[in-house]
From TrEMBL:
<dbReference type="GO" id="GO:0016887">
    <property type="term" value="F:ATP hydrolysis activity"/>
</dbReference>
<dbReference type="GO" id="GO:0051782">
    <property type="term" value="P:negative regulation of cell division"/>
</dbReference>
<dbReference type="InterPro" id="IPR014433">
    <property type="entry name" value="CooC"/>
</dbReference>
<dbReference type="GO" id="GO:0005524">
    <property type="term" value="F:ATP binding"/>
</dbReference>
<dbReference type="InterPro" id="IPR050625">
    <property type="entry name" value="ParA/MinD_ATPase"/>
</dbReference>
<dbReference type="GO" id="GO:0005829">
    <property type="term" value="C:cytosol"/>
</dbReference>
<dbReference type="InterPro" id="IPR025669">
    <property type="entry name" value="AAA_dom"/>
</dbReference>
<protein>
    <submittedName>
        <fullName>Carbon monoxide dehydrogenase</fullName>
    </submittedName>
</protein>
<dbReference type="GO" id="GO:0009898">
    <property type="term" value="C:cytoplasmic side of plasma membrane"/>
</dbReference>
<feature type="domain" description="AAA">
    <location>
        <begin position="10"/>
        <end position="173"/>
    </location>
</feature>
<dbReference type="Pfam" id="PF13614">
    <property type="entry name" value="AAA_31"/>
</dbReference>
<dbReference type="InterPro" id="IPR027417">
    <property type="entry name" value="P-loop_NTPase"/>
</dbReference>
Amino acid sequence: MSFTVALGGKGGTGKTTIAGLLVRYMIERGMKPVLAVDADANVNLNEVLGVPLDETLSDAREMMKKDVPIGMTKDIFMQMKMEQALVEGEEFDLIAMGRPEGPGCYCAANNLLSSLLDRLMGNYDYLVVDNEAGMEHFSRLTQKDVDLLLLVSDPSRRGLTAACRISELVESLPIRVKQKVLLVNQVQAVPNGWPEDVLQAFGEENIAVLPADPLLVQYDIEGKPTSALPRDSAVVRAAYDVFDRLFAQAEAA
């Protein structure tokens, strides 16, 4: 069984950056093979990881509706397109879901993708899934259990409220979550206490904090992959400490 980490949160909170740092952490800790899944319609996990991306699974889904070659079955076509969409890195692989569905029926394509994704994910010991805010994309295309759900927020009231709402939404989805953690990112100063709704949704023991790091902003502006930040940078040190603690807890559970 694969160990699955899923990330969600309001846009702009840095969840994709954290997903990239998590992939790097896993590689450095020998937690391989790892598959990174970009399930956000705003595809950019490849930029964080520093790898090119030519195709997404949504491209394959669109093509299946009209461009399957004569003499080729749809399942063989989708298998071929999935293999083309898979980006093979030196120590990790990446696949991107792409944009949401357009007009028309996608049931057949989604069913094929779900089956193929299940088969693909079975080849990896670790999965890192970077979701769009609502988690529906992950739920619709994969029915995997989630070992660790990281809901990422910035310190704003809106970000924290969004994380609480996503936490509630996840409870209604057909996904079993073993551990749920709120990761508050870009923090200038840790508050004296968290709002009551945040504590009710997560519990104080399941809230972690990452500091604001000017070097991260600089890398982003310069177009450098943020997964290549120096090991001694503030956000990388803090993220690794959080990951160490979370995986130790998962092993002990």
